[in-house]
Structures are given as C-alpha cells and as structure tokens.
Write a structure and sequence with these properties.
Helix content: 40-55%
Largest sheet: 4 strands, mixed
CATH architecture of the largest domain: 3-Layer(aba) Sandwich
Distance between the termini: 39 Å
CATH class of the largest domain: Alpha Beta
Length: 434
Amino acid sequence: MRIYDIIAKKRDGYSLSPKEIEILIRGYVDGTIPDYQVAAWAMAVFFQGMDEEEIKALTQQMIISGDSIDLSAIEGIKVDKHSTGGVGDTTTLVLGPIVAAGGAPVAKMSGRGLGHTGGTIDKLESIPGFHVELTNKQFVKQVNEIKLAVIGQTGNLVPADKKLYGLRDVTATVNSMPLIASSIMSKKIAAGADAIMLDVKTGNGAFLKDLNEAIELAKTMVNIGNNFNRDTIAIISNMNQPLGWAVGNSLEVQEAIMTLKGKGPEDLTKLCLELAAHMFVLGKRTSEFTEGLVLAEELLYSGKALAKFAEFIKAQGGDATVIDNLEKLPQAKYKLKIISLHSGYIESIETQEIGRAAMLLGAGRSKKEDVIDLGVGIMIRKKIGDQVTKNDVLAEVYYNKDEKAQEVIPIIQNAYSFNTGKINKPPLILKTIN
C-alpha cells in the first residue's frame, strides 16, 4: 500500500482503515515515511476531518508508539485531570489535595510550560526542596501511602505525538479537532489513569476561542476516553478573564495555599470544587455529583485538603512550612501598581494580553530552553463586572527588571475595556459533557 494512496484517500474525504493509519504512524515514527508526506496527510485531515473509528485508531497508534505507564500496583481507581490551559490556571495545586484527601488516588504526570507561565512542574518547583524526579517504585509507593504524587513526564511517552505535533506546528495544522483530541487523550491514556477529568477552556485567553469548537473538542475527547474504557467527563470553563488572581509561578503557589485555607478567589475555588466533585464520581468515592460537591467542600473548609498538601510537599522533599511562611517562596524584588485610566464597569479583559505581559516579565518561556523567573508575575485586582474609578488599581506587577515592568504597564491597561452601564459577572462553567 502506497502512502500516496492513503493521502489521496483522505484528501478526497474517505475514511481510512485502522491498518492504513497504522502504516502511516508507524512509518512516520521509524523514519521510513518523510515529513512532507505526513504534512500532506495532516492538511487533508484538517479539511476533511476524521470519523470516530479513525480517531480511535489514530489514538491507539499514538499510544503504542512508546511507553505506557502501568499503575496497576496503585490501589483504587486512578483519576487523572487535564486542562487545555489558560491564564492563571492553578487548579492542579488545589484540586490534587482535595481529591487525595477524599481517598481517590491522584497519580499525575505533568509538564513544564511554554507560554505565559510555567507548567505545574515549574510551579511546584517554586517550593524550596520540592523535586519531581521519582522512580516508578517511589511514585507508586507515595500514591498508595498518601494518595497523591506529581512527577515530570517520561521521555518516551507517546513519541508519535511529539513528532506529529512538531510537524503540525510548522504546517498550520494544529487547529484540527481530531488531531488535538488524539494528541491529548493518547498521553492521558498512556499515563495509566483509569478515569479522566477534562477541563476544556474557551474564550479569549484559551487555545479555543469559540465555544462551539470547545464543545466539539470536549465531545471528541470524551468519546475517545470511553472507547478506551476510561470513564471520562469534560466541563467547558470560561477563560475570557484570568482564573483567580495570580499569574506567575510562585504567586500561583501562594494563591493555591490561600485557596486551600478557604481564602482564595471565588472562581478558582468554585472550579476546583466542581472538578473534585466529578472526580469523586469517576473514582467511585461518591455516587453522584451533588454528593461529591458536599464532600469536596467539607475537605476544603475543614482544613483536611490543606493538611494533604503539606503531606504531599513533605513527601517530595519540599519545605512544608511554606504553608504558613509564604515569604519562603521565591519573591520578586519590586512591586508596581497598575492604575485604571478610565472609570466605569469592566466589560472585558483581553486575557491573552495579561498572559503575554506575564511572559515578558519572565514568568514563562517562549522556547524550551528559556529559564523562568519563579518570583515574577501579576496579581489581578479587578475583574469583569467590577466597578472602578480612574486611578483605581487594576493589577499589581511583581518584577525584577525595571525595563520589563515599564513595558507591561500599557499592555495591562489596554487589556481592560469599560462600559458606563452595569456588567454582569460572566458564568464560569458553561457546559458539562459525560
């Protein structure tokens, strides 16, 4: 069978067989099929899409292209969570301890971030002494003992995805629903989870700006999970403004700690509680969502989730006293207040611009080898629906380089739009798909 014929078949809108997809992906991974032919296939998929059986076959080939993690030695139903990313997305740091405190094992592999801030691993490494390098034996032992461990991603997990994503990135084929869905879900399934909770972001600070596209992606990923016998639930959450207050690695750890103390921002708290409720259902800790929500709230407001976070930090070599001594976390040297140039009600926030400002300060990476400044970032003080007068503080910038702080002042100010009439606060969770 010629690769040319596989490309032409997909170009003309026909479904590929599992065998044809196997030939394509295996050949690409072993180097016998060149980039230019796979690029042509990816563009054909971009325009013609894939049906459910094709997506399942593609996901399967991605999974078996490398290692899969065996978590069978961990007791209970392992529930993983994935977010499609946004600005100020601190959920894992709050959610993991809540779910683990409720007895559901969370064995999580996370990555480092490209873009406005670091990933979960970078944020955790803001904690003095915290390390993410655990052997598989240590990883399993820790989850069995305290129900929570977070490690960096293994180098040979789904190598087909890594190679294919690099190609999509330079051929304008990233925004293909089947390719996005199989990319995300192949990694989640290969990571060994029994059930998967998806937080699909939509809005001006998300990868997917359009709600209908986010719903399509969520449905596709839920179908993939169910096709691989992983109970899967997705929520669509609003990323038309930063989540919570903090954007930056150490600042987000501080915010997570405050949230676990019951003093965090309303939206971050609400999202984490609802995600935890769904994860309790997926992990068979509760029979229904409302019961799970009651459990999540009890664990948060009783201090049990905070105690679990301290236990988790200590287990991975970190200094758990940071919980009551936030100054032990990396600190920026300087702080600058960003004032409003207008009066009125905040109508919208260009969330992507807030993220760009954080990256310019040094909170994120534009390329993999960049070094993150863990102490810098932005604290959002006003959000959509808030009333402000001229010279009110919109945000605070934490910085180490004055020229960077001066550069982000107009970016943050211009990210805010105002209206003279009252603006309702936007809904946070837009849809649930299961």
